[in-house]
Structure formats: structure tokens, C-alpha cells
Amino acid sequence: MTTYAEPATATAAATDTPVPPPAGDLLARLRAAVAAHPARTAVHAVDGSLDFAGLDRRTTALAGALRAAGVRRGDRVGVHLGRTSDLPVALLAVWRAGAAYVPLDPAYPAERIGFMAADARLAALISADAAPPVPDGVPVLRPDAEAAPAAAFTPHPLDSAYVIYTSGSTGRPKGVEVSHGAVADLAAALERSGAYRPEAGVVAWNASVSFDASVQQWIRICRGDTLVVIDDAQRAEPADLVRLLAEHGITDLDLTPSHWQLLREPLAGARVPRLFMGGEAVPARTWRELADGGIDALNLYGPTECTVDAITAPITGPGPHLGEPLPGVRAYLLDDRLAPVTGVGAVGELYLGGPGLAHGYPGHPGPTAGRFVADPFAAEPGARMYRTGDQARRSADGLLEYVGRVDRQVKVRGFRIELGEVEHALAALDGVTAAAVTVHEAAPGDHRLAGYVTGKAADGDAVVRPADLLAELRRTLPAHLVPSTVTVLDALPLTPNGKVDHRALPVPAPASAPVPDTATASDTGTGTPDAHGGVDEQVAEVWRTVLGVPAVEPTDDFLSLGGHSLAALRVVHLLRRKLGVELQLRHLLDAVDLADFTAAVRRAAAAGPAAARPALTARRAAVR
What integer pLDDT is reported at residue 250 of this predicted model? Predict the structure, then answer.
């Protein structure tokens, strides 16, 4: 069993038994799966299915096209695709061409995609868009491009497999470069731990490709598992997702604890697949619910810099905990002098070592050296360990328990966020003289970013307008980095040493959208309170409850009041139960304001349960 460092010893006990090397690289394992089961379904997606033979043909052809475009071993190739069968084809083709993939989510603002593409120095891009936002001179290939297949590529364990960008404390996202050996070791460690069952499974790909949680989902295809790519509309509708789980007989589902709360009721009475729960701490109430309900679930912990997962625990027994390191992982609790922390309950910073460590942050030697430091406890010379920034302690049972952070990195709805990046973006806006960002708990378990600024509007107004600032941020930042609210202050509170006192910032006030000059309740179809007071009040009450605001107006916009995708799902879920209406998420995310949404609720009730579900709109994609 892998354990963390014992304070009484000079070195860490890595495992009681030797950990074998990964069972071949993942491309070799994919070739073996193709040879053994060519007719087995490899990919299900909204645009169709591929068997393993078809997957092999398409990835080989696209890899040949990449090589013909000049892509060589060690290059980086951007993947700018939606959630269709093209996505796993492109990722595997990049690997087969000898390159590393760089995911570029089409839902991200063009400016951010352009920055990541330039920072990664892409050799090529795979995209279905006519004019993707990448620097001039980068060859763009369609996902169905074909050329003569190149010779089979066998990666060296140190060859780069992918570069995934995370939020950056200096105001810019930074890439994390992970090797093929680390990814292969991840798969082997999850197999040895029992997280991956020996038999082939049917795996739901739920996480965004821009986040490292996606890696442990989509690489399952390399071991012969069937991959079900959940598209954006299915991810957004709990009832649709539950139907998809049943339709394809999905055996494994990766999700955050927040997402589980939205699925628990639709899944009541249904077969629940094995749950891989990560991205944020599991609340005690969720742990008890899963454990007491006998649901097969795993708690997974690991930073992007340590190849997705490093520590895991079955969600059983009392209390949330991180559990034990995966095979081959070295975990230490250390103080600020890198000395082991002793005693049950003593808090230390968690450091991780082993074959899963990333190469570092390409182009950023300083941050790489600051986070990836020499491991004084490892037996092999030159070993490194990663400083996670997470604080943990040892329980009386010898298990690791998460305590908090030593820096200003946070997790909100499963997204890793450096508050400094959001502060930089706010401070750069016209009229803003100073900015601060914190996390506010609007309701139990509902954590949101809250922004605070000082400044004067460029048009001569006394202060900058929160709605204008939020609109600007949405044009440059991904949705998960945009604060739910911005509060304008005369001055930011300071500590005695002159730094911003984040603890002294006031509770954020909800920001209402500006009221159009000609907009009225009757203009948007809500009518008068007397005519529709019952429905009006119930819809408004649900908004107030979910958003944690004291009052709402017909002209209020859901996003401007701090709404996000999970909050939207809660609104829809509550109104379905209250009103017995077949309401869909699109009704809320496509609505201009509260009045427009209330009118949509009535139309949905009149249309009955068979209302059509159009494709995902830009507004819906923006709140993912």
C-alpha cells in the first residue's frame, strides 16, 4: 500500500511492493485494442458512432495529414473542436503524429484562445471553424483531413503528451506540460488501485477537454473501453444526461460534487454508474449520502501538475477524506522548512512525488522552479516533488484530510481559479483604479467569485458601473472566471502593512442589469401582478432563493445577478417541482430577463412535455 512520508524516517515509503512500469504506452495499448476488438464500439457521440477499426482508420489518416503539414515529434498541435466524435479522433491523431495536444475550447473568448495558441507556439491547429482565432501562419486542418499514414509512432516516456492551460496568478493562464510516461502511469495506477475495472467499460466523457479531469476519462479508449462523449446540451440537462446513462449502459461517470447534487433526484430509482468524484472537496453531507446509500463512488484528488489523480478513496465510512496515494505516488506533509509534520491532526502542506509529475510550465522557468522542487526523501537521485499549495492533516486512522489552501488559489464549481488572474483582468478595465476578488458563499455549498473595485467611469460618472465591467470581462475571460458580482467601493480596506484586507471586504451586493428605457413588464409579456401574480411570484421567489438576493425586478438579468450554469439548473429543477411544468434549461439561459423567463415558463406549460429543444446557443455556452 502506498503511504505518505512517516516523520520518523528520512525517506518516504513509496509502496510495500514494487510498482511495475506502465503496461506499454497508450498508443501501443490502443493498437492492441484495435487488433483484439475491431468491431467493438469505440466512440458514441451526438454525431454518430465509431468502432475501433473505424477509429483506427480516421486517427491514422488525420495523423498522416498532420505529418504532411509539417508536424514533427515534440511539436504542439491545438485542438479547437466541439464535443463530437471528432474530438477523440483529433487527440489520438495528434499523439500518432508524435506531437502534444493543446485543447482550445471554442466556448472561450477569442482573445484567450489567441493568447494560448501563441504562447504554446502551435505547429498546427485542428478545427472545424472557417476562421479560428489563432496567429497567422499556423496551418489549420479540418478533423476529417486525410493523407497517407505515417509510420507508427512510439513515444518516449518523456515526450510531451499535452499542454493544458490553468488560471495564472500573474494575470495570464499558464500551460502545464505532461509527458506520455506520466499519462500511461496514471492509467496503470488507476488499474492497480481498482478504480478502473479489469473488464472493458462504457465511460462517460463529462469534463471539458480544457481541464485535466478529461484525461482520465478519454484515455480509457486506449485500453479498449467504449467512450460516450456527452455533448453540451446533454451535460446541461440532468434528465437528458440520466437518459443517456441508461441508453448506453454507462458504467463510469466523472463529475463534481456540485453536479451530483443536480443528478441525485433524476437518478433516484435508476442504476447509478461508478462515480469518479473530483474537482472540488466533497461536502460532508454528500459523503454521507453516497456512503449511506451504498453508491459506488470514489473521491479523487490531484492537481493538474501531477497528471490528474494522485490520491483516492472509496466514499465509504464516516467523514470526507482524501484517502491514500495511488501506487507509485509519494505524498508528504511538510512545514515551511520542508520538515515532516508530526502528530495526528497537525497541519502541513501537501507535497507529491512520483512518475506522474508534469515537466512544468513551458516558457516559465521561475514558476516551474518554485513549484517543482528537489525531493530530499526520494531514494533515486534527481527526484522532484510538487508543492501543491494544499494544506492537509493526518487523521487518527492514518488517512489524509484536506484542510485548505496556503495561497489564493480557489476551486469554484470544479474550476481551478487563481484570484490574482481575475484581479488583473478587473484592474485593467477602463476607469478601474484598484481591484480585489474573493469567494463568497451565497448559499450553503454555492460559492461564487465576488469582485470589488474603486474608480471613475470614463464618461464622467462618479463611479464605474458594475454591469459595464462585467460585460467587458465576459468578452475576455472564460465564464468560470467572471465574478458573479462587482461592488464599487470608495477605497479597498487595507491591513496595517498596506495590503488589501480581503477579510474586511463587505458582503457583495447583487448587481442588477440596466433597465432599458422602454422596457416594462407588459412589453415582455408578463402582464400585471393581478393577472399572473401566482406564477410571477413563484418564479421570482425561486430566483431570490437560488441567487441569494433579497429582491428581483422584471428587468433583472440572471447572469448579472450572479447566475451560473449550476444555479440555472437549480432554478429549473425547483420550478419543475413547484409548477409541474416541463421546463428546460434553455428557457432560462435564452431569456433576456426575469420577465422574459416568466413568459417562457407559461409557454412551456402551454406546450406540454414535448416542447422542442433547439441547439445550444452562444449565451448558453457562455455560462458553462
Answer: 97
Instruction: Answer for the pair 536, 594: CB distance below 8 angstroms, yes or no.
Output: no
CA angle 472, 474, 476 (to 5 degrees): 80
Separation CA 366–CA 352 (nearest Å): 19
- For residue 2 the three cell numbers come to 502506498
| pLDDT tens per residue, range 191-243 | 999 999 999 999 999 998 999 999 999 999 999 999 999 998 888 788 889 99
- Give the CA distances from residue 322 to residues 281, 304, 311, in Å, rounded to whole numbers and listed in that order: 9, 16, 6
DSSP string, 511-537: PPPPPPTT--TTTTT---HHHHHHHHH
Length of the chain equals 624
Would you tell me how many other CB atoms lie within 10 Å of the CB of residue 440? 18
Nearest C-alpha neighbor of 453 from the set 464, 467, 462, 461: 464
**Which residue is associated with the grid cell 506520455?**
180
The answer to whether 620 touches 611, Cβ cutoff 8 Å, is no
The closest alpha carbon to 393, from 91, 43, 7, 1, belongs to 7
**pLDDT per position as a tens digit, 315-327:** 998 889 998 999 9
Give one DSSP letter per residue of 296-315, joined into a string: -EEEEE--GGG-S-SEEEES
Q: How far is residue 105 from each of residues 134, 165, 362, 414, 576, measured CA to CA in Å? A: 12, 11, 20, 16, 31
Decide if 249 contacts 240 (C-beta within 8 A): no
Can you read off the three cell numbers belonging to residue 381? 537521485
Do 150 and 97 meet the contact criterion of CB atoms below 8 Å apart?
A: yes
DSSP lists the bridge partners of residue 296 as none
Which grid coordinates are listed for 534? 401566482
